[in-house]
Amino acid sequence: MFALLLTISCSTSIALILKQNDTRNGNPLLLLTANYFIAAIISFIFLCINPHRSFSMETLLFGAFLAILFVVSFFAFAKAVRIAGTALATVSSRLSVIVPLLLSILIFKEKPSSFQTIGIVCAFITIGLFYQSIRHSDSKKIRLLDYIYLLVVLLGIGVNDFGMKIFQQWRPSIEKPYFIFIIFLCSFIYTFIIVVIQGIRFEKTVLVRGAILGIPNMFSTFFLLLALGQLPAIVVYPIVNIGIILLTTLGAAILWKEKMNRSGLCALQFGMAALILLGIS
């Protein structure tokens, strides 16, 4: 249970750090670059101290490909926090669970339970309420691109999670530390190249926030794997997802006085219901 609480804390801090960076007008790409640099260092240390490790070209190529999706979805999440607020952006990222579920149904021929089917319906209702919430927001004019960012968050994180499922079924578990290191290393390389090409000026405060972000980003994965080793997945995922939503919403309300309109509150409620139903087997 302690690992479960640490997973929720780490994942919640990611959203709050992204919000803090946005309030200080920090460049999100520079933030992500520093974040992936620290995460790559930590994952490399874990790889080195692991007495049982293995390497392969297949894992390297798959990790390098998946890193592209990691960068795109993380950047979209940073944008979504600015557009829709921390709470709704977090719900969007947590609802990404429907993507690996649907892909598992289509590709691996897994059959959803009645509860999971209702959960999928609730998830799509939540997405519709997202649209209503943002469309009626008085804070800023919403563009089509803003909605796309929320969709990319949901799809990107969902495909990343499904990529992990593919890795576990395709590659030996002994290569997992190497796989995680490749993802963070390649993500750092990709974002660093973009920063250099765009000539983004290095800001010490943004780099520090990014370095801090890299710690919970790495350990959220570590503690999640630890929690899954202690508790059933059908218990872990609903508790983690709902805990992150509640803590993020509370933190955003306390720190930045974030408020949601009626559609936003309904989206939050339907999203939590969807996560509970999707976690019931």
List the defining traits of the structure above.
281 residues; mainly alpha; globular
Quick synopsis:
The protein has 281 residues and is an all-alpha fold. Helix content is 82%, strand content 0%.
Helix amount = over 70%
Total helices: the number is 11
Question: What average pLDDT do the residues reach?
Answer: 83
**Count of DSSP strands:** 0
Structural class: mainly alpha
Q: Roughly how many Å apart are the termini?
A: 20 Å
The residue ranges in which pLDDT falls below 50 over 5 or more consecutive positions are none
Strand content: under 5%
Oligomeric form of this entry?
single chain
What does this structure look like?
This protein has 281 residues and is mostly helical. It has one domain. Helices cover 82% and strands 0% of the residues. It has eleven helices and no strands. The relative contact order is 0.23. The model has no long low-confidence stretch (mean pLDDT 83).
Topology, please?
Blueprint: H1 2-23, H2 28-49, H3 57-84, H4 86-94, H5 98-107, H6 114-135, H7 144-170, H8 176-198, H9 204-230, H10 233-256, H11 262-278
